[in-house]
């Protein structure tokens, strides 16, 4: 990990550690709540692809207004730099804003706009230098929840170096409480690709693929707000039809 990433991760965790003390002095407004999380994972796998094959540090903050509007930030260390192949470290910053509402005790929905910003991000050029694409992506994410079942629909809104505008990601996730405070977590997801915007940087061989399936167990550590997670990920395919690896993940999550 680069010195920049180490300093950034340290700063995030120091900031998170100071929040409980700050909360004692400054109470959150009655009109909303501030929540956060911090995690360390053995790997960072996103939609079947490897974002960090080493231990990843992740953290986030979210403010939710009682009206249903919310905004937040989430970040993670990476084992690559999207604009410099010679570097083996980087950082992902996700900024989002959205709205969610509970229809009744069983049904709810959420929609959010997320910007994916990468450390040292800018533009990626084709080998001949005639074409370029930015690394910052913007995606519209939608979720419809019924009890413990969540259905997701993500739509990429702009061409980036890893995706075409119009790419669609479909997902489903289910969580079930088990004895001894264990929780079973499962999910599955796949892409429908828009190949009409291909160029020298992004090429599509498959119009639709299965991306990943997950099966995991989570166990809270008493009343500390922390939990241990063990998860197995079955990899599918990418847009070129190349097979993605399977992975076993172990993580420690803390929420406040």
Give the helices and strands, then pairings:
Layout: H1 3-25, E1 32-41, E2 44-46, E3 49-52, E4 56-65, E5 69-78, E6 90-102, E7 107-118, E8 123-125, E9 132-134, E10 137-146, E11 149-156, E12 168-177, E13 183-192, E14 208-220, E15 226-235, E16 247-255
Antiparallel strand pairs: 1-4, 1-16, 2-3, 4-5, 5-6, 6-7, 7-10, 8-9, 10-11, 11-12, 12-13, 13-14, 14-15, 15-16
Signal peptide: 1-23
Keywords: Signal
Protein name: Porin
Can I get a quick summary?
This protein is mainly β and 256 residues long.
Give structural notes.
By secondary structure, the protein is mainly β. Helix content is 9%, strand content 54%. It has one domain (33-255): monomeric porin ompg (Porin, Beta Barrel). The strands form 3 sheets. A 12-stranded antiparallel barrel has the order 1-4-5-6-7-10-11-12-13-14-15-16. The longest helix is centred in the first third of the chain and has 23 residues, at 3-25. The radius of gyration is 19 Å and the shape is globular.
Mean pLDDT: 90
What CATH calls the topology is Porin
Note the total helix count.
1
Binned, the helix content reads: under 10%
CATH homologous superfamily, by name?
monomeric porin ompg
CATH architecture: Beta Barrel
DSSP strand content: over 45%
Which strand order do you get reading across the main beta sheet? 1-4-5-6-7-10-11-12-13-14-15-16
Give the beta-strand count. 16
CATH class: Mainly Beta
In whole angstroms, the N-to-C terminal distance is 27 Å
Q: H/E element string?
A: HEEEEEEEEEEEEEEEE
Would you identify the regions where 5 or more consecutive residues have pLDDT less than 50? Answer: 1-26
What does the largest sheet look like?
12 strands, antiparallel, barrel
Structure class: mainly beta
Pfam families: Gcw_chp
Keywords: Signal
Protein name: Porin
Organism: Acinetobacter pragensis
């Amino acid at each position: 990990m680069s010195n920049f990433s180490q300093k950034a991760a340290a700063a995030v965790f120091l900031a998170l550690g100071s929040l409980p003390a700050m909360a004692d002095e400054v109470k959150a407004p009655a009109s909303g709540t501030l929540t956060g999380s911090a995690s360390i994972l053995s790997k960072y796998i996103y939609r079947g692809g490897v974002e960090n094959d080493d231990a990843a540090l992740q953290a986030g903050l979210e403010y939710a207004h009682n009206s249903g509007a919310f905004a937040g930030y989430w970040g993670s260390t990476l084992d690559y730099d999207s604009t410099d192949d010679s570097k083996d470290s980087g950082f992902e910053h996700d900024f989002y804003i959205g709205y969610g509402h509970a229809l009744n005790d069983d049904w709810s929905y959420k929609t959010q706009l997320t910007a994916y910003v990468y450390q040292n991000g800018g533009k990626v050029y084709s080998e001949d230098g005639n074409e370029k694409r930015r690394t910052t992506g913007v995606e519209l994410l939608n979720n419809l929840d019924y009890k413990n079942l969540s259905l997701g629909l993500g739509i990429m809104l702009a061409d980036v170096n890893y995706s075409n505008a119009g790419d669609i990601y479909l997902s489903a996730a289910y969580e079930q409480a088990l004895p001894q405070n264990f929780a079973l977590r499962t999910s599955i997801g796949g892409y429908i690709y828009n190949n009409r915007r291909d160029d020298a940087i992004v090429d599509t061989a498959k119009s639709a693929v299965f991306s990943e399936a997950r099966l995991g167990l989570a166990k809270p550590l008493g009343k500390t707000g922390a939990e241990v997670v063990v998860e197995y990920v079955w990899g599918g395919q990418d847009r070129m039809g190349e097979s993605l690896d399977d992975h076993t993940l172990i993580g420690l999550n803390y929420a406040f």
